[in-house]
Amino acid sequence: AAIATNIGRGIGVITQLWFLFRGVKHIKVLRSQLHLHWQTIKTILRTSLGGIGQMIIAMTSWIFIMRLLSDFGSEVVAGATIALRIMMFTMMPAWGMSNAVATLVGQNLGAKKPDRAERSVWITGFWNMIFLIGVAIVYFINSEALVRIFSDDLKVISVGGMWLRIVSYSYFVYAWWMVAVQAFNGAGDTVTPTKINFVFFWLIQIPLAYILSQVLGFEYSGVFWAIFISETSVGLFTIWLFTRGKWKYVNV
Fold first, then answer.
1. Domains in the chain, number
2. Model pTM?
């Protein structure tokens, strides 16, 4: 699987470079046009640090979540891992819509049209919410059937199904978080989403998962409910912060 992943990604990068330098589509880069512009590089690095921080915080939070789940046996970890993979796959269209928001916001702010930028966020957020509500319904009705595709172990199926059902309750709000975060990123404010992720995924989600699962005795279901609570909370807070409109005036 690791070898196949490397081959697939390598072919993807080579294909992108081929399209870029051959000018097959709308953009063509000539060798004579390539030169280092240090001020631009500095700006890109400064802006990208926030995005890097967002990914590090998000990925490491899942590591801690899996560590907590490991206390309840290998079947629980297996079920949670399968559910997480299913969740990541089915959310790819939602992330596609969310990433498009970053482009729309950046483009409209660059054109001095902040109201149009905000409108694009609300429209995309609405359709993202509709899509994820549909996904949540599928999870709620067929959660165990989805997990059964990858395992015939009854415990694994039960755990994975429980994860999908509980986490899907937050999708109504989580859809807006995905879009709002990318709106901040598109505006050039990558620091705010990093701070939000740190608070809700490290300072709230992980301790809450520990308390519910270990202290209060909810076991692995407590971890799933902690994820639901943190994802719902981060969605509501991020939308509230977005409505304040300070992202419209970020200087990159």
1. 2
2. 0.84
